[in-house]
Amino acid sequence: SIAIQLSLADEWGRTCLHLAACSPAEDNITVEMIQFLLQNDAPLLCRDIYGRTPLHIAAAFGKASAIPYLS
To answer: What phi, psi does 8 have (nearest 5°)?
Structure first.
């Protein structure tokens, strides 16, 4: 098995959860990715270098179905 630190961020402060929240995948796949990450302790309230949380990202990308999981 492979261990992944879900709290790691890229140079813009984006975590896996930020990236899932703006995924170009269909909404049901986006929600599944977010649920998986949250079930595996991805940090919900992390902020990127602009102060945006995954909730902000999902709203900006029109991922309405993901918002209940990120709020």
So the answer is: -65, 145
